[in-house]
Amino acid sequence: MSSASGRFEVVFNGEIYNHLKLRRDLEEAGHAPVWRGTSDTEVMMAGFEVWGIEETLARLEGMFAIALWDRETRTLKLVRDRLGEKPLYYGWQGKGRDAVFLFGSELKALQAHPAFNARIRRDAIVAMLRHGHVPEDLVIYEGLRKLRPGEIAEISLEAPEPKRKLYWDGGAIAAAPRGPAPSDEDAIEGLNTLLLDAVSQEMMSDVPLGAFLSGGIDSSVVVGLMQHLSKKPVHTFSIGFHEARYNEAQFAKEVADHLGTHHTELYVGDTDLRDVIPRLPHMYDEPFADSSQIPTFLVAEMAREHVTVALSGDGGDELFCGYDRYVHGQKMMDKLRGLPGPLRSLGGAAIRAIPETWLNKLMESIRATPQGKEPNGQRLHRLANYAMSATTEELHQKMVSVWRFPEDAVLGGSSPPSILADHLPSRGDLSDMERMMQLDMLAYLPDDILCKVDRATMAVALESRAPLLDHRVAEFIWALPERFKYRDGKSKWLLRQVLYKYVPAALIERPKMGFEVPIGLWLRGGLRDWAQAFLDPDRLRREGYLDEAVITRLWSQHLLGSHNWGAQLWNVLMFQAWLETYGDVTSA
């Protein structure tokens, strides 16, 4: 779209939720053009002309990836939303006079250009094996980057190297000094008011709208607010599993029944889940291995049969302290600080010196290994590795790493610099728990959770919106002390208090489950032949990316049952499946 004066040209992916308010602001100030339509894009463009780019960005509430060409200055600006809901890839391809600058929300768009001829980045493979995704601003191909959340990049023919800066710095906001804490009542009412406004804005749609409902705290609070605001039953969607230990569908139905939503659920088995696997590489563009991508796609596919937009509870864990590792990590650091560093290292090394198979036999009579879980010896080695951590940041990186030394598995590979270890954001006065939340908000949330949801929903032409990721909510919760996030042994304290206005506590109080998929068991069963083909040593040697000796050792140990390398092997398999799909557009 062109701006009214013709100065700006935009390509825009996303949604500006407060565009009606911005339209009124422009009109009341006497700056409104003659409107050509009712779109949020036109309002945003008018804002760029009247307020300038950065002031307009500061006023926008929404999710977006923006490419803005300024005819006057002959510069291109690329912008990504504050929390990273929408992706944006960019970079130069070709050389000299033939070089072209490519950008897009999907790598497929860049690959379609005749100039695209990028080599696979080996350090990106290392990072992908470590985390299960290609993190931060890395891309699986050389010469390309991802815009980071809250970042703006400027490119011109006179300055072809992108100039990058943050227009919204989540790390700094989390670490900023806090003012006086409000009372519990004021904090609860403040969050409730913010969330009502965020949900109200995100419910505005001229197409059918619904919500994902797992029955957990995050999705339940979103649906509770939606139903409070709606004059008719909200359409909610849940996915159920026939295996009881993974199934939350009955809890979601109880919440739906209490709120009076129009509820739809889909029960799936192993076969349904496994049938999605061949579609994953094309769906995600880059190697991506969070196994909950499979049920996420299935619930999105089911929802799309009924609605075009679905609200979700994404962001609740990272902003309100939802992951168990935050509590475990803080308790562990409290204990470790009482021990001298050499003693921690010696004790951890001593445990790790005992072969895991011996530990398995010693521990089996005390604690039997649950089906599909890591054996006791493997678990003790992992905990010993945690205990050797000198800092909260080191412990956190270990807890979010699937592979401990992924560079050993990648031929010619090395670990790239990371926000989690090499260029850490300021910590300020954050507790251990809050420090881990801060790092997850900057890395795990956009690179795993939001990537997973965006690609799965876009694959079925469903728009997903996340009210908990309204930047005003993030700024509000980070301005509060830890006790509003974790109190009396319970996570998400403040979010729970808002939820209880709409849903009784008795329907919610239970252990967190999540979208867990039994990958380790599948690889010994129904997926064994599929995996064996990708992990064949001759194939690995011919492709030249992964060390066949390292991979074969893990695969053999996993099949024997002495170890559960399901998560590690799934990362390898998702890279291999991606390579098979996209190998023809790369230069090895």
Automatic annotation (TrEMBL):
<dbReference type="GO" id="GO:0004066">
    <property type="term" value="F:asparagine synthase (glutamine-hydrolyzing) activity"/>
</dbReference>
<dbReference type="InterPro" id="IPR029055">
    <property type="entry name" value="Ntn_hydrolases_N"/>
</dbReference>
<dbReference type="GO" id="GO:0005524">
    <property type="term" value="F:ATP binding"/>
</dbReference>
<dbReference type="InterPro" id="IPR014729">
    <property type="entry name" value="Rossmann-like_a/b/a_fold"/>
</dbReference>
<dbReference type="InterPro" id="IPR033738">
    <property type="entry name" value="AsnB_N"/>
</dbReference>
<keyword id="KW-0315">Glutamine amidotransferase</keyword>
<dbReference type="InterPro" id="IPR006426">
    <property type="entry name" value="Asn_synth_AEB"/>
</dbReference>
<protein>
    <recommendedName>
        <fullName>asparagine synthase (glutamine-hydrolyzing)</fullName>
        <ecNumber>6.3.5.4</ecNumber>
    </recommendedName>
</protein>
<feature type="site" description="Important for beta-aspartyl-AMP intermediate formation">
    <location>
        <position position="314"/>
    </location>
</feature>
<dbReference type="Pfam" id="PF13537">
    <property type="entry name" value="GATase_7"/>
</dbReference>
<dbReference type="GO" id="GO:0006529">
    <property type="term" value="P:asparagine biosynthetic process"/>
</dbReference>
<comment type="similarity">
    <text>Belongs to the asparagine synthetase family.</text>
</comment>
<feature type="binding site">
    <location>
        <position position="239"/>
    </location>
    <ligand>
        <name>ATP</name>
    </ligand>
</feature>
<dbReference type="InterPro" id="IPR017932">
    <property type="entry name" value="GATase_2_dom"/>
</dbReference>
<feature type="binding site">
    <location>
        <begin position="312"/>
        <end position="313"/>
    </location>
    <ligand>
        <name>ATP</name>
    </ligand>
</feature>
<keyword id="KW-0067">ATP-binding</keyword>
<comment type="pathway">
    <text>Amino-acid biosynthesis; L-asparagine biosynthesis; L-asparagine from L-aspartate (L-Gln route): step 1/1.</text>
</comment>
<dbReference type="InterPro" id="IPR001962">
    <property type="entry name" value="Asn_synthase"/>
</dbReference>
<feature type="domain" description="Glutamine amidotransferase type-2">
    <location>
        <begin position="1"/>
        <end position="158"/>
    </location>
</feature>
<keyword id="KW-0547">Nucleotide-binding</keyword>
<dbReference type="InterPro" id="IPR051786">
    <property type="entry name" value="ASN_synthetase/amidase"/>
</dbReference>
<dbReference type="Pfam" id="PF00733">
    <property type="entry name" value="Asn_synthase"/>
</dbReference>
<feature type="binding site">
    <location>
        <position position="40"/>
    </location>
    <ligand>
        <name>L-glutamine</name>
    </ligand>
</feature>
<dbReference type="GO" id="GO:0005829">
    <property type="term" value="C:cytosol"/>
</dbReference>
